[in-house]
Amino acid sequence: MNSDAIFRPRRLGHANLFVSDLDRSMAFYTSVVGLEEVYRRPAVKAGFLSNGNTHHDIGMVEVSSPLCRTKAPGLYHLAFEMENELELVEGYRRAVARRKSFARTVDHDITYSIYDSDPEGHMLEYYADSTKDWRTKRSGIVTKPTPPWTPGEHPPSAERNYHVDPDIRRVKDAVFHPRRITHAVLVTADYAAELDYYTTVTGP
Fold first, then answer.
1. What is the pTM of this model?
2. 16 with 76: CB under 8 angstroms?
3. What is the mean pLDDT of residues 124-153?
4. 50, 185 in Cβ contact below 8 A?
C-alpha cells in the first residue's frame, strides 16, 4: 500500500454493471454465479446481489435507467471499501488539500460514499460501511432516496462496520459458489496515466 496515496482501501468491495435486461441479469447472477438477491431500487431500475461477504458483491442498473447516460451495457463503477468512516474522511481531506474534487458524495443509508473517475473515465466509489446490519436496513424493495453526504460534517466513526468473518451463503443449485470479488481488469488507452492514478489516489 502506498502510504502517500489519497485513499488506502482495505479491498475491492463490489462491481456495478449496466445491463440491458435487469431481470435476466439478476437471474443469471443468482442461478449461475451463485449470489443471492438482496434488494432492488425500482426508481432507478437497479438490483443488488451478495453471498454475505458484504452488502453487495455485484450491483446492476438497467440501461434504460436515468443513471445510465450511455444507454449501453458495460461497467458502471468499481467500489473500494475503506477500513472505516474516519479513513474515508481523512482520504477526502487529503484530496481537498491537493485541490482534488469529486463527482459526488452520498449517504447510501448503509454506507458513506465518495465518487471519482480515473483518467479513462471509469467511475470509482470509495466507501465506508455505516452499519453492520445491512440486511435489515436494505432488503427487498428500497424506495428511500440517497441524499448528499458532507464528509466530516459530524465526527467520523473509527468503528469497523464490515464483518471480519462473514456468514457466506450458498445458492444451493447454482453452478458456482464464489467467495468474494477479488479483482477487475480495465482496458486503457493511456497505461501510464491509469497506473499513476491508481498508485497515487487509490493506493495499492
1. 0.96
2. yes
3. 96
4. no
